Hints:
The chain is an all-alpha fold.
Amino acid sequence: MYVFVMAAIPVILIGIIIAYLKPKPLLAYLLIFVFGMLPPAFLHVFYCAILETRCEPEALSAVGYVIYSITVIAPSIIIYTFMPTRFKTRQ
């Protein structure tokens, strides 16, 4: 449940940002990718720099960052693909 909530929050935020900016489709997919890669970086900064816990580099944590990014990027792309056109284009 915790992982679902941690992945759902960035997906919702990415959808809101993309709907607000209304970029062209190629730029929208690029923004989804960039915004999807940011949450693991924020988590790393939060845990390592702010809380100062578990700062040693590990290969398994890098794999976790990639998997977490995929769980954010994939639903964001699916939601953007099926989003109504009134949220995608400027009027």
